[in-house]
């Protein structure tokens, strides 16, 4: 009888801290960022080694200007995935809050996070436009699966999926925001997102571990499989094939080269490493869905096998 009471107290205490932090360090991107400043075509948007084709034969064929342009388009593609998933997350958080007590700190923080995500989506959308790139829509299958997921998601899936996507974006943006050689606009967007997402990740991680511990075997098996699908589709769609067409490359050939590229595989495992550690410790990466984690290229000890499989 004491364990549930302690969990509820811990949940409220964590949410209270997150609400205080939000009050002290939240940003309005429309005010904080200089959207009128010109984008510098002489700068990369992300570090060259994080571009999906870095080190490949196709990369060597590109001029330096094309490489920088590709970095801007890939950044826009990642931001587009961020908008797509944040829209899903906002709907799932609203569903989470729907039949719960709005006077609780836990639900008040859910509302706070929804507000943050609204601003982040606008911020990402404005950045995409300023980078001279289109909004890179996910393919119809992924779009359909996103609709299904947001409708049928349970609590462990809501928070585990949020944690995964937030962690991979956070890793990339933490590196970007401190590199003074990169495009200032992308660095400014990254800095705001990192500060506010740190709270979101704490909220998601704590709630996932809390609800996961109370789930039975059938619910856990279902959640493992669906999360693996989320990981696979979110990760493999980070770079839209049209990014390659934007710099004059054949999208199919470039996508094949990226899948086989050990540098890109290393970047994926690096971006996902914290999320993978959390889910491994919780016993999530097992069963039929493990193969999807491997095919997504985010399991460091199996990335080579996945790259070899993609090459066949």
UniProtKB/TrEMBL annotation:
Pfam families: AurF
Highest taxon listed in the record's lineage: Bacteria
Residues annotated as signal peptide: none
GO function terms (MF aspect): oxidoreductase activity
Name used for this protein in its record: Diiron oxygenase
Lineage: Bacteria, Bacillati, Actinomycetota, Actinomycetes, Streptosporangiales
